[in-house]
Amino acid sequence: MKNVTVVGAGLVGSLWSLYLAKRGYSVDVYERRPDPRKSGRAEGRSINLALSDRGWAALEQVGMAEAVRKEAIPMYRRVMHDVAGNLSFQPYGKENQAIYSVSRGGLNRLLVEAAESHPEVRVHFGHACVDADVEAGTATFSADGETITSTGTAVFATDGAFSKVRAQFQRRDRFNYQQEYIEHGYKELHIPPGQNGSHQIEREALHIWPRGKHMLIGLPNPDGSFTCTLFFPMEGPTSFDALQTPEEAEKFFQEVFADALALMPDFQDQWAKNPVASLVIIRCSPWNVGGKTVLFGDASHAIVPFYGQGMNSGFEDCRIFDALLEAHNGNFETAFPAFSDERKPHADAIAELAMRNFVEMRDLTAQPEFLLQKKIEAAFSAKYPGRWMPLYSQVTFSHIPYAEALAAGKRQEAIMQTIMARPDIEATWNSDEVMEAILAQLG
Ligand SMILES: Cc1cc2nc3c(=O)[nH]c(=O)nc-3n(C[C@H](O)[C@H](O)[C@H](O)COP(=O)(O)OP(=O)(O)OC[C@H]3O[C@@H](n4cnc5c(N)ncnc54)[C@H](O)[C@@H]3O)c2cc1C
Q: At what angle do helices 11-22 and 53-61 cross, to 10 degrees?
């Protein structure tokens, strides 16, 4: 039986080890963090995540979807909060289509436990990768002052955006690498449960407080609380830098996010305690060195979180890689480069889509014209199903390759610009004439 090495038992690494075991490999997974079940440590960044169709499909394939579904909360629509606390709503998709709020720690634990329960998977916590021989397909780990080197025939590097294994790729000729910090960072804040564990704002929704250059979002947790994330410039007149004290931050929230602040009784403590973190985009290629070492998940394509697709795309990597292993009869020498070639354009596309969605979330969702445009698109798509799938649905509720979704989205946007420019659009948006004008442009 072929023995292989996985570096990083995060979301993608733990899922991928399950795929490998299912294919009959013997798998050693090395994770830098201590075993969270023994250390009781908090779970790292972003407490909850939005899981959508691409992620579900990948979980389904290794029989994990049901277990995850039990702990997930569907979010059927966006609820936008304006400065005065007025609400507006936008469904995510068709009736019953939802994205799901899941706990990062809970999901990671489920996947690690499922992997560990497989007789051919061994998860070694507290093992930090310190080096890798990417041509040999081995990695070296430090644990309790000792150094060990993996013995498997290949390395799957799923050690995240700051991958230690990727650092070895960067020393090689003709490896392309780009790392970009965006202007915004983030801080998490918490809305506690109401009485008897109730949710204080609509439970099955993703809440957004769009404010132009920045925004706050909130995702529900099963215990009645919400995890909120403030996406905010790191520097400048309105920025984390400018809000020097918790008192200043509270004053700012009072002006800009008053209804959210009213639900955070310990705001100042949270502000002082919770760190500010940066957001980085990683682009690189190729993702493999022969059939010996391959990068995937955030290690090869970290993106900003605004489309809720980082984990979902990493999970999709697993499903696609698995299909390629099948197609290549388990031949790593041909499957690894095929994966890199096939997947890279789609990773670039979702990176672009994610940045575009930031503008949509923080700015456009607050504009009536944008909401009208989305209503027209939904009406057209309902009238001519098959002729128009909104871009958000292509990305979130389908398996259309990301680059195709991006191209179709650009075409749709160009058509909608002409429709929105019609002088009487507010009165006629649902008319046959408008629907036919869209149809004509689609050709
Ligand atoms: C604020 C925020 C919100 C997000 N929201 C969403 C969302 O709603 N939906 C979504 O799909 N995605 C979301 N994402 C993206 C998502 O978190 C990532 O895409 C996902 O975690 C990538 O999984 P991964 O396993 O590739 O990397 P990671 O989750 O980073 O896991 C890497 C693992 O490798 C381990 N590791 C690192 N270095 C070493 C080493 N040297 N040796 C051994 N182990 C090591 C780490 O400890 C970790 O366990 C969000 C990200 C952020 C920052």
A: 40
CA 192 to chain CA mean position, Å: 24
CB 31 within 8 A of CB 123: yes
Residue 12 alpha carbon to ligand 1 centre in Å: 8
CA–CA dist 308, 310 (Å, integer): 6
Q: Ligand 1 centre from 282 Cα, in Å? A: 13
Report pLDDT digits (tens) over 236-266: 999 999 998 999 999 999 999 999 999 999 9
Closest CA to 333 of 293, 297, 296: 293
The three-state DSSP-derived secondary structure of 286-349 is CCEECCCEEECCHHHHCCCHHHCCHHHHHHHHHHHHHHHHHHCCCCHHHHHHHHHHHHHHHHHH
User: pLDDT averaged over the chain?
Assistant: 95
Residues with CB under 6 Å of ligand 1 are 7-13, 30-33, 45-46, 49-50, 128-129, 158-160, 164, 186, 229, 297-299, 305, 308-312, 314
Between CA 68 and CA 258 the distance in angstroms is 34
Domain 3-60+102-178+280-357 has CATH 3.50.50.60: yes
Q: Which of 6, 7, 11 to mutate to test the pocket of ligand 1 (most atoms within 8 A of CB)?
A: 11
Residue 69: CB atoms within 10 A of its CB come to: 14
pLDDT in tens, 386-395: 899 999 999 9
* β-pairing verdict for 26-30 and 3-7: parallel
DSSP string computed for 84-107:
TS-EEEEESSSTT--EEEEEHHHH
Radius of gyration of the chain (CA): 23
Alpha-carbon distance 433 to 268, whole Å? Answer: 54
Ligand 1 center–CA 150 separation, angstroms: 23
User: Quick one: which of 30, 7, 33, 22 has its CA closest to 119?
Assistant: 22
Distance 85 CA to ligand 1 centre (A): 33
25 CA from centroid of ligand 1 (Å): 24
Domain segments of the chain: what residues?
3-60+102-178+280-357, 367-442
Q: Is 77 exposed, middle or buried (0-12, 13-18, 19+ CB in 10 A)?
A: middle
Query: Coil, helix or strand for 206?
Result: strand
> Are residues 353 and 309 in contact, defined by beta-carbon separation less than 8 angstroms?
yes
